Amino acid sequence: MVTLHGGRTIRQLIVWTVALCCCCGGCAGGPRPIRFRWPWQQPSAVPAQPAGGLHEYELRNGRWVRRESVRPMPPALRRAEALIQEQRYDEAISLLDDTIDADDETPGAVHRYGLFLLAEAYYWKGDLVAARTHYEKLLDRYPGTEEALTAATRLYQIGTRWLDAAANDDTQPAGMLRRIAFWRQSDRPWIDADGHAIKVLEYIQEHDPGNPLADDAILAIANYQFRRGNFEQAAFYYDLLIQGYPKSEHLAHAYLRAAEARLALYDGAEYNAKPLEEARRLLQTAATQFPELADQRPRIYEMLHRIEERQAERDFQVARFYERIGRPDAARVYYQLVIRDYPKTSWAQRARQRLEELGLEQQGPQPKRLSDLLDELVPSLAERFGLEPDEAPADPNAGDEARPSPGTDARSAGESDTLLRRPELTPTWPGTVAEPGPLPGPPGGLP
Asked: For residue 414, what pLDDT band results from cuts at 50, 70 and 90?
């Protein structure tokens, strides 16, 4: 037996070579197409056509509407169907290339169904790059047809398959070796596979937004971006799902993940607090509008508590800043805001300790809310501009029975607070009358 350098034999070298080829997904002879099968689909899953003919469509008001008439199916298309059923995909592709022109701009039943069969042949052969191109041509030319619905489903499967492959190639050594060994593979793009996958899924949502898989396509992109740590992109796609598909079955999941993405985008007390406000709004909506999230309530409340902790930290850091620049009065205001607005946080206890250490806990008035400041501002504006205030109801949420009926005086209804009176439409100026009179003539009368 021949022994190589280091004590290894030729047999061991052959074993390692074969193992490497298996790891890469093929042999040294070249790329081998992967013929995969989805559990719910077989090559026979094509739109049903009438016996011996093809459905015809006509364009009405920008939409394809199926006619009652049937067009005879050419023998070449019938033969291509049989070849696809027999898994003789190369022969079917060659026959369809000779029968139709994929780039033909003249619409018709033969061109529509032939283009669909050509895309199907590439799809089941494993050449997903070519299949994607022909499915997109079909959706561009014949949206709303039965073949277009199947094409959208195929594009969704291609996009999700490429996303999974991109994630595995970036994290698994076997996937990276396979890309290096077989760079001419046709089951997915060699460069930027996840970018192409996102484009495919976006294509479904943009060109066929009413498709049942449109929201699934957006969710697949959002989940992929979330798993990769691209939280800004993930939040964008979750928002697109929430705003564009309010009746989607994935809505509750989108609200939770969008909130988590914004929490991940928050960089600290020194930066913008907008992600915290948006996350709090999303979580409050998720907790109140989705009964199916009842088992997620503890998780939602835990995230809301984290948001309160971080918002309290922001005010606490502002108070510390005022301490450092010698403004204890301003520091006291922010410490009291922390204690009042976030009493259940750890920062509230720290704020109390700082007030005690500085001897400011009993000094000065308590900070006021914005609504209290507005209540004080309205009467002062009325007095400044010389307007007479009306009295508003003490309870703004009172029922209709507590409100004065039209034509009655508000003061007689027992109201207390003040509101600005609406000015009259025809103002009365000094030296004029309320009712407009005839227009005055020029000085000296008419010539």
From this structure: very low
